[in-house]
Fold each of these.
Amino acid sequence: MSVRAIKLSIIVPTLNESGCIRSTLLALQHLRADAHQVIVADGGSTDDTVAQCQGLVDSVVQCRAGRAIQMNAGAGVARHDALWFLHADTLVPAAAADLIIDALDADTDVVPAWGRFNVRFSNTATVFSLIAWCMNKRSCMTGIATGDQAIFVRKSLFQQLGGFPEIDLMEDIALSRLLRRFAPPVCLSATVTTSSRRWERHGVLRTVLLMWKLRLLYFFGVSPRRLALMYRGGPAPVVRHRL
């Protein structure tokens, strides 16, 4: 473990996550005991998400709904030099904080500034393992991380870039593009476990095709607002190519 006194501010955006938030936060309690900070940024939950956070977090921030908005609000009360963004349905390995600290404090030619974990799904069926492998391999090749991969970043750089672009979808892709201009991500081989609930609910093939389609349309300039409608089952957008 690094001898430098790097501490993490861990930011978890929530919106009606009563079914999973307690498990996520319980896995972080040993980090609070080691003086890391846990922040929940709630976007107006109407269930008992906030109540389940009591005693398990250092701060609950209430703000408008929107993952980027919520994560920026959480970062606004962060007191440590490194930020770690976790989805509410993501479980982390016990040594995750040590791995982040070591990565950010590594003695390399390029100053480590940000990174992400490998991801796996809660469903261990072969098809989910294959999807996760593809996600992790693509991320290392492109320098683009998704929110499911538990992005971490030095707070000074995050603030310099203005935080997450406050768009309706693809905020993780947009931030990754900004970050990789400064340095490539540290791709940790340790895995975080994300829920496969959406894939199971909507079907694996349908979800894979939807994700590919959304990324392609985003590349061609379709607005994140229209992509968000599509992600939630709304009307398909009209594609206008960039000139």
Amino acid sequence: MMRSLLALSVIALVATVLALAIGSVTIPPSELWAVIQGKGSMLHSTLVWELRLPRALAAFATGGLLAVAGALMQVLLRNPLADPYVLGLSGGAAVGALLAMLSGMGALLISGSAFAGAMLATVLVFGLAHGTGSWTASRLLLTGVVVAAGWGAVITLILALTPSYKLPGMLYWLMGDVSYARTPWPALLVLALAIAVIMPLARNLNVLARGSMQAAALGVSVRPLEWTIYLLASLLTATAVTTAGSIGFVGLIVPHMLRLVLGNDQRIILPASALAGGILLVLADTLARTVIAPEQLPVGVITALLGVPTFLYLLHRSR
């Protein structure tokens, strides 16, 4: 366990260094080391400390949030191909953000509106799935799919009514773009707190993954644990979408790939997902910044191009 996490930590450090050095202006290793020591040129110091490092940390936090949320959703729904966006959270966040953009609000209010929209989607899905009785994993999943389709229709309506000069920013946000991240620290704090909260419950998650009946027979308080997973996964997803827009496939691919390599022990999968998700999105964002530099691609495009063939391979393999 420790060796795997240590290896992922080293890879995360290497990915961050690459993100600092590579871009439209390449910083040689010697100059990057001088900047870290506080001795570099003013241009390179500005690039590293004010532009690239905050963006790399935001990408790492967003990727970690989505991967951990995906791992939790896959346990909750007992489905290894579940996705953190499957319950319509990204749709609610997108509607909130697009309405804020349409109203001409500032970046801070856009982030706040996106978070409010995601939380509204969480309450809506949970309330509809619960109804007058109890909810099951399949009922929650079906409700989320339907609500997500409803949000998609609202998003299409908003885009159709939006003036053309506002459309590019909206479309970039919908595709996922780390450059919209104002500061990485709230997302990093939420990620760290989530890992601290969920790790003591990892043994119970291992039991729950085998089925609620077996978990209850072994003394696990199933319903409170499922509520905790659902609310925590919703908070992680909402924070990620608020930070960088809607970025797909990270929460789906990363936990599934780690299970193939490390097994299905949540004590390993959860912290490994935080590291591996962060690594994936940092590398994807670095590629998005450099592939057609000085122009930039939305990082969601890169994750989709990587995620679609990977998902199809995993789906074929599961047969």
Amino acid sequence: MDTMVDIEPQIRNILTKHARLAADASTLAADADLYQAGMTSQASVNVMLALEGEFDIEFPDELLKRSVFGSISAIRDAVAGIANA
């Protein structure tokens, strides 16, 4: 991945398709709690798999925890960290 300039729109699109949120992902604040917005742990696995496919990355075991998928900003930071590793 060349640049991580603004991956938030892609993350929001993945959340719209896979997170089963009660709210529209495009309207959520970047730091909003995705679990409070309706995402289940099963949906978070689907989100993780979609992120891996979209960004051609693999989440290491140490990042497979609830907090990493708890908000758009946490996901963005994790994806950027993996992509730049």
